[in-house]
Amino acid sequence: MELDRPLPSPITPEAKPFWDGLRERKLLLPRCQACGHAFFYPRVLCPRCHARDIGWIQASGRGKLHAFEIAYQAFHKAWKIKPPYVLAMVELAEGPRLMTNLVNVEPDPKAIKCDMPVQVVFSKLTDEITLPLFEPVR
Ligand SMILES: [Zn+2]
What we know:
This protein has one helix and seven strands. By secondary structure, it is mostly beta strands. It has one domain (13-136). It has a five-stranded antiparallel beta sheet. Strands 1-2 form a two-stranded antiparallel sheet. Bound molecules: zinc ion (ZN). Zinc ion binds next to loops.
């Protein structure tokens, strides 16, 4: 199978639970054990209180579209997704935002609105890498 995009590499120790969860079709988020703040991207300390005691929670997979852009050109030749496609910043129900693609929707500003409800779609690229993409909730 030809991949349609570059794979994330290397996977860092602090992000490993995130990628392991995606393989099992779970969207996991790091959460600070000291102050309870859930955040993204994974890192070794809490961005709010700087504690290093980080645990993981399973996110609902639900959220809303915070912002989007319809891309009419690939920004790199390694990107083989046929444009137009939708770059999206999704705000998860748990609070953190993540950059992703909005899929299963017409790449048309008439069909896509900020704050529209979205849900995760697990897109398996390889045995190692599954990506969390999002689609509108219908
Ligand atoms: Zn904290």
